[in-house]
Specification:
single chain, 132 residues, 7-stranded mixed beta sheet, CoA-binding protein, CoA-bd, NAD(P)-bd_dom_sf
C-alpha cells in the first residue's frame, strides 16, 4: 500500500462519477486537490467538474502509474490485464472491492496491488504520520 501511495503521480480513476454524492467523485476530487494528475474514466460523461473524461484507459495519451477502480469486483480481472498491457505500476481496488483473480494477475505481473481499501483514507493517514 505504501509503495503505491509514495509512487503515484498520474492516476486514472475508473468509475469517477459526476455525481457529487458518490464516493468516486469525492475521492477523485480529493486526489485532484492533493495535486495529483487525475484522469476520470467515465463513459457516460464528457466532463466532470470542468475536467475532460475518458471512455477508457487507452484514450489517455500520458503514462498512467496508478489505476484506482470504483466498479464492481468482476471488472477488476480485465482491468488488471489492461494495466499490465499499458505498463501501469499500481492497481488499487477501492473499499469493498475484492477480486483475488485480479490480485494474482497483478502480482504475477509485478504490479503493486491493493484491494478493499480507500485510497483517500490511506493517503490522509500517510500524510498525518509524516507530520508527527
Amino acid at each position: 500500500m505504501q509503495n503505491i501511495l509514495k509512487s503515484m503521480k498520474n492516476i486514472a480513476v475508473v468509475g469517477f462519477s459526476p455525481d457529487p454524492n458518490k464516493a468516486s467523485n469525492h475521492v477523485g476530487n480529493y486526489l485532484i486537490e492533493q495535486g495529483f494528475n487525475v484522469f476520470a474514466i467515465y463513459p457516460k460523461s464528457v466532463e466532470i467538474n470542468g475536467r475532460q473524461t475518458y471512455q477508457s484507459l487507452s484514450e489517455i495519451k500520458q503514462n498512467i502509474d496508478t489505476i484506482v477502480m470504483f466498479r464492481k469486483a468482476e471488472f477488476a480481472t480485465e482491468l488488471a490485464k489492461e494495466a499490465l498491457r499499458l505498463g501501469v505500476k499500481n492497481l488499487w481496488l477501492q473499499l469493498g472491492i475484492v477480486n483475488d483473480e485480479a490480485k494474482k494477475i497483478a502480482q504475477d505481473g509485478g504490479l503493486n496491488f491493493t484491494q478493499d481499501a480507500c485510497i483517500m483514507i490511506e493517503h490522509k493517514r500517510m500524510k498525518n504520520d509524516k507530520s508527527k
